[in-house]
Amino acid sequence: MFKFVIVKLVVFLCISCASHTEQHKVNIHNRLLTLDAHLDTPALLVRPDFDIMQEHSHDHDFSQVDWPRMEKGGLDGGFWVIYTPQGPLNADAYKSNRDTALLRAMAIQTMVSVNPDTFELATVAEDAHRITNIGKKVVYISMENAYPLGEDLSLLTTFYKLGLRMLGPVHFKNNQFGDSSTDPQGSIWGGLSPLGKQLVAEANRLGIVLDGSHGHDLLLEDLINLSKTPVILSHTGTKTIYDHPRNIDDTLLKKLADSGGVIHVNAYSAYLTKLPNNPERQKAYQDLFEKFGRNWSTFDTETWQALKQARYQLDKKHPAIKASFEDYMQHFLHILNVVGPKHVGVGADWDGGGGVVEMMDISTLPLITERLLNEGYSEQDLADIWSNNVLRLLKQAKDYADSVN
Amino acid sequence: MFKFVIVKLVVFLCISCASHTEQHKVNIHNRLLTLDAHLDTPALLVRPDFDIMQEHSHDHDFSQVDWPRMEKGGLDGGFWVIYTPQGPLNADAYKSNRDTALLRAMAIQTMVSVNPDTFELATVAEDAHRITNIGKKVVYISMENAYPLGEDLSLLTTFYKLGLRMLGPVHFKNNQFGDSSTDPQGSIWGGLSPLGKQLVAEANRLGIVLDGSHGHDLLLEDLINLSKTPVILSHTGTKTIYDHPRNIDDTLLKKLADSGGVIHVNAYSAYLTKLPNNPERQKAYQDLFEKFGRNWSTFDTETWQALKQARYQLDKKHPAIKASFEDYMQHFLHILNVVGPKHVGVGADWDGGGGVVEMMDISTLPLITERLLNEGYSEQDLADIWSNNVLRLLKQAKDYADSVN
């Protein structure tokens, strides 16, 4: 930590850094290996109207990631998420969600298989540089919400075989593995459940990085204490800037970093700052969902087009109120100040609700690099933030697994 | 049945049928919709050295199906098999094989995804004609050996979602679902086990055709008695021509047909006729497998190439002894004589051990059509044999599922 403070002081005194031209900053961004730790885009891959190879516009279809925009925004890849929403805790629901998760994993694999010159599945840390060096995008697979594993931990091996290398035990609500940060009930397990502790051991045994995002503070503490390798927060902010259960305080942040962990800063507006209420928009959305229903997985292309068009009109009439890029950077800079650039990364929750006014999709990602360079962070710091840190965790997870298997 | 006998008599008396030229017969073959009920090729899809789009030669790499040879042999598609060999009956083995089966299903789906202009996944009877009409090959998915479902019948839904539409409960040995025709122990369940009976009900509920191939006679009887829709034998022969446990007698054959079922005739040489022993070859193969091991799923391309080369040399030195095309046709013609062309199809066990001297891969499939035309079967009979019959079963299975869901 001391070393970091000294480096920062030197950088602040170094006027040459301030003289980076805009183009120079973009060049730096483009030569970095850039990974986002939480890409929710696989939820779009299973939609009949979405083509990852075509450029979309957030204004028109609310999507935030595709190959053309990855090229524009200089994003080399990241962790592509198998997400299932929290449902009831019973055998039938577990099995149904297991199937959904398997099909989602398959959708990610299919995206790679049908675009073999564009994407490549990555499973070890070394893959990232190798894949970007041959001009392809990096596809690690992660899971947000371990719920679809049910009570059958052997399914973690199944998903590992399908490429899974990062796992978050919970989402919005408490589940069989532990406590969520946002369940109205509060903590019921005191962090991880007994099954959740077994899940941690199994993830360690396989070499899967544990992700505390969405976890209750007590769950994150349990992860840090129990996991044999450092923990990630793939998309989380700081309570110091905005006190929200999805953010963590500086004490826990330091504990995470001291244990070798990394926090990837979330750009989910409602977690960045207090936003004004928007009752007309809320009402309009409620009406929209009543009209279309929420059984989205059964929608055909035409229904999707109609829904998108309706959402587009709704957005024009009742615009979303978003946090600003500055709000996002306040989280980013505070976290950097507390733990330094060896423990920070980017996880903006793209296609999962992330985005701020000036950065509503990945095409504007160079803004982050530019701003951090302006703040005096070095290209090496940026290299750590944009990928070295998460790759370090991935390597540590694998090294541990190799040592015990 | 009477109608069939009369039609056959008329055909025999019709001299014009005998005047079909060779080219005319090939033309008939090419305009038929041709499906093989049991393509074991997916076992090759997971090998790093196999490319379904390239033409291979059985002499050199022992493969029997690929797209160029489908074109040559006029094969429009069939049921592509998820096969796992029978292993121990315990939870760990079930889970490991569940994963293997899931990955195999994914390999089939991937074959389709990466070749969208060549293959298409088929799930209902109507798909077959639609897909062939647009010049693509038909990919139905089946499972040989329900063993990887373990004791968790909900996995049948998982595989159904992955496209599964045909299911054989057992393979070489008795398992949790019932008795095999070739287990040295003989029948231990008296046919289907209690879990096997639940499996039948679940397959019916989903609309999956039940396949009695490899099943003990008692299991086939159970399937016929319990299944709500007609049963298939996807690759089986007749005991009347060669008395082997993998073949069935005429009584059971008639029972199958009377219940609306269909038998697809197997071309696995050792089940077609008594073959002489070949101890030198057996010894040579034993040595080969000792040298290479049997952990094939871990072989890289080079090891596969070396193994293929070694097998090629072995085959030249100790040629395989195969049944003849005539042996195959004796089974085919006897079965046709007993149950008629509405209850017979082709399931030659390609890439699963099938093949006879004159027909060692699918490129020679027109031989079957030609021979049956010579025997006096009509183009309509051939259309039934080559696809209508199995598609009828598929439709019946779906109609039943629709009626109860």
Provide a compact summary of the structure:
Chain A has helices at 2-13, 15-18, 22-31, 42-45, 58-61, 67-73, 91-114, 125-133, 154-161, 194-206, 217-226, 250-258, 269-272, 279-292, 301-317, 325-339, 366-374, 379-404, and strands at residues 35-39, 77-83, 119-121, 137-144, 164-168, 209-210, 232-238, 247-248, 262-265, 344-346. Chain A has 18 helices and 10 strands.
Strand/helix succession of chain A = HHHEHHHEHEHEHEHEHEEHEHHHHEHH
Question: Uncertain regions of chain A: pLDDT < 50 for 5+ in a row?
Answer: 1-18
Reported CATH architecture of the largest domain in chain A: Alpha-Beta Barrel
* Tally of alpha and pi helices of chain A: 18
Structural class of chain A: alpha/beta
Strand coverage percent of chain A: 5-15%
CATH topology of the largest domain in chain A: TIM Barrel
Largest sheet of chain A: 6 strands, parallel
The CATH fourth-level homologous superfamily of the largest domain in chain A: Metal-dependent hydrolases
Rg of chain A, rounded, reads 20 Å
Total of domains of chain A? 2
What does the oligomeric state look like here?
homodimer
GO molecular function (chains A, B): metallodipeptidase activity
Organism (chains A, B): Agaribacter marinus
Protein name (chains A, B): Peptidase M19
